[in-house]
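Per your request, structure below.
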């Protein structure tokens, strides 16, 4: 029986869950859609970064990602994070490669949108303009 690794990745309000099956043919799907036809080209390239860095170890595994919430860009970032974490669980030697390339592939970005403040017209930090100063 093959091993299955389940990992998750978050970016802002987007959440991705990746399932890596060790016995596979190198198929990567996101929400049931093959990665080769996923969304726009630059988003597809962002998701492919951990796959390209892992090299030949990806050709023998299948990765299925479910992603939801947020916008399309944050979903792509969450997918890349979940895929990278799954590849590290599968093969520990990938961890150093990912950290050397970009730490954000393994460590989630915790920044969030700043909340709106009272009496500021819905903006987070805007001040009321005064003409006499």
């Amino acid at each position: 029986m093959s091993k299955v690794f389940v990992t998750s990745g978050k970016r802002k309000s987007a959440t991705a869950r990746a399932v890596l099956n060790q016995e596979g043919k190198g198929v990567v799907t996101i929400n049931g859609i093959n990665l080769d036809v996923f969304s726009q080209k630059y988003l597809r390239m962002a998701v492919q970064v951990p796959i390209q860095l892992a090299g030949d170890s990806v050709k023998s595994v299948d990765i299925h990602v479910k992603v939801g919430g947020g916008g399309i860009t944050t979903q792509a970032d969450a997918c890349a994070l979940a895929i990278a974490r799954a590849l590290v669980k599968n093969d520990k030697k990938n961890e150093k490669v990912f950290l050397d390339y970009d730490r954000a592939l393994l460590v989630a970005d915790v920044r969030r949108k700043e909340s709106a403040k009272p009496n500021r017209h819905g903006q987070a930090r805007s001040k009321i303009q005064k003409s006499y100063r």
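The CA atoms of residues 12 and 113 lie 8 Å apart.

Regards,
D.
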